[in-house]
Amino acid sequence: MPHSEKLSAEKVEAIAQRINDRYPDLSGKLRKQILATVVRSLDNMVFIEGGEFEMGDFGTLCQYDPANMGPWPYGQEPERLCPITPERHDDYLHQVRLSSYYLSRYQTRLEDFDLFRTSLGLPLFKAEYRDREDLADYFASDNPTPVKSWQEAKDYCLWLGELSSYPVDLPSEAQWEFAARSRGQYLQYTTDNGNLENGRNILHDDKTFLVPVGQFPANPLGLYDMTGNTTDWVNDWYAEDYYAHSPQQDPKGPESGIQKVRRGSNYAEANWMSANSVRRWPDNPKSDGYYPGSSFRCSIQSAQVLDQ
């Protein structure tokens, strides 16, 4: 049995039994790999104590230095600040109150997503290119995995939940922003110190490809790569005016829609403009391929102690 930092031996054994019951026809080696992945994924969950915050674009200096951000509102009256983003669908500030939850320390790794597909009898995506030396960086096992659709990200998290017996899912948009802003503080950038320091706490602006998870310092809550390497899918449907009528308690987005919400930014974007904590943007829930720069992380929708 794999050692766990958070789970008792009895809990790990229960997960192992669930995996054996679910996949009796898989080899023992694959079942052990699945068990190790589930246990590690739970160990990587960071407890986020709930609370209340003002969600949305809270404003920034009209002329500012991303490498030297002071405490908000930077010595100004809040109403004299300029929008952080050029979009207007994040400008409606509104109070949100969240229950406690867990959020993964890392985005989902390519190796783990491959194992998920294998467990379902699905081929690895772009299998015909996996042995090419010039694409070794693209298929690095510790890279944040790309997904072709929002549903794949959702299904992976639900798979972890099924095997672990915890309510694992994608985080809500509000949960993502609350965690990125270190429990709702007025932090423009989701780095270890609130500043952008190219090459130290975020990718260089001229970086032309993503890097493995966890290469830069975590934010104060212990979450890695909340911005600057690849984006995160969240659970919510998108509506441009949702902030204006969002419920205060644990908002989960519109009941239906056409597009889903992404949060964060990716390696191909200008950090000073895109790598902030409030930008939200819609995207079609299904694309035509597995593109780097589009990933996800899972959450546990409960404050339950993990060993119970």
Describe the structure.
The protein is an alpha+beta fold. It has a single domain (44-300), classed as paralog of FGE (formylglycine-generating enzyme), CATH 3.90.1580.10. Helix content is 22%, strand content 13%. It is built from six helices and ten strands, in the order H-H-E-E-E-E-H-H-E-H-E-E-H-E-E-E. The protein has helices spanning 9-22, 28-43, 110-119, 150-164, 173-180, 271-274; strands at 45-48, 51-55, 94-98, 101-104, 168-169, 231-237, 260-263, 280-283, 294-295, 299-300. The strands form three sheets. The chain has a four-stranded antiparallel sheet. A four-stranded mixed sheet has the order 8-7-6-9. Helix 2 (28-43) crosses helix 3. It is globular.
List the helices and strands and how they pair.
Elements: H1 9-22, H2 28-43, E1 45-48, E2 51-55, E3 94-98, E4 101-104, H3 110-119, H4 150-164, E5 168-169, H5 173-180, E6 231-237, E7 260-263, H6 271-274, E8 280-283, E9 294-295, E10 299-300
Helix pairs in contact: 1-2, 2-3
Top keywords for this entry?
alpha+beta; 6 helices; CTDL_fold; 308 residues; 22% helix; 4-stranded antiparallel β-sheet
